[in-house]
Protein: Importin subunit alpha
Organism: Adineta ricciae
Amino acid sequence: MSSFFLMLPFEFIYRILDHLDDEALIFSARNVCKRLNLILDTYYPYQVIRNIMIDSLFSDDESQILDALSEYQRIINQRLHAESRQLDIQIITLDVVSRLVQLLTSENDKFQKKALRILLNVTGGSSKQTKYVVDAGTVPILIQLMQSPNEITQEDAIWMLSNIAGDNKNYRDFVLDHGILEPLLNVLSDDTCTLTMLEVATWCLSNLCRFDSPSVDFPKIPSIIPILSRLLQNNTDTRILRGVCYIIRKLIQQSNKLISTVIENSVIPRLVTLLEHTVEVIRLSALTVIKEILGGNDQEKQMVLDDDGFLPHLSMLFDVDRTQINENLCDVIVNITAGTESQIQAVIDADIFPRMIQFLYLDADKIKERVACTIRNSTRFSSTQTEYFVGQGAIPLLFDLLRSSETKIIEIVLEGLQNILGWGVAESKQMQNSNPYTMLIKELNELDKVEELRSHRDNEVAARARHIIETYFDIR
């Protein structure tokens, strides 16, 4: 048994032995010692550090305070690299956190830096520990420290505020209400900022945009977009690029009125170039922003399509081995084809649809829905465009998608069939011939699928199915 164990107080040894079951004690002295040493390695240091914190952290002696901070920091760092953090709560208590927060305002620079770093690690832990920090009145102090002349202090303060804001919606709003935005934007606008500082500040702003409900005040957003545009243009760091794309996407999701502001700040050309980035997560990040922009009005869609590199870059992204990119690619195509006839024609000219339908073999409902949407959207305006999609196998595709159990997909498919059959009527009148598309459907022997849908549980689906059967096939 180690001398370290023998040096322990007898009462402490007794308490440990008392918690061992009889079988373990009988098994072998060696196993008992191993068990005790395991307990000592994890439990005893925390009892010691608690005593140090109580006796020294609250002391008036500066050397004792500094020793306590150093030991506390060592233990916290040790636990950060451990598999289990279950003992952290024994040393992270509200009274200790309150004392650390008090030291943030100390004139002693060492106290401030060490206390700040310890609290930073605390906010990277559980929500309960983060609550201790917030309840101790840390946020206003951190806002002040964001303007510290010391770069490390400034960076740690921003990082800690980011941890707090990212914990939950209420804390995010609490941090915003205390005025974080202006000093944070000042940091992001500073050309002398280090790369690490920019990474931390970008991550902080992204956490301020998290959660579904509105976050950043809309009157302040016009001043944010130019800063984000500069960060996007002037950086190659993947963390910054990914963070900026995330922020822009979240802001647009809060209000598509921001799309015009994003476009005016020349964001699109940079996003298009990022579609060919060597790092996949950056390509995906840029694509998701473009998807949101293409969800705007027809004029805003056109601003993206007017970039000569956009559709070629988009076409290059089609890869059946990247599910997330594939789904977002399909979203982009759906958004474009929801626009004007000329915008649909741009998709046709880029020969994108044949590559899009490759994704159907993945048998994913999201992909099926997007393919159905693209066909429905693209058969709204002209017989020529409809003929193109029929030539690409649109009708067999739609009937295959009718096998879906998803009501939404079935409804979209029926809308697409209505569009196609409607153009077939117009063509038959012009050519004084039969509707070519009804003939094609009959040849496929698939009409029974539509007939069955007349009794579908969804009234809208049943009504569309009856309309198709009665109007185009004269079946009552």
Notes: Confidence is low (pLDDT under 50) at residues 1-8. Residues 207 and 313 are 30 Å apart (CA to CA). The chain is about 75% helix and 0% strand.
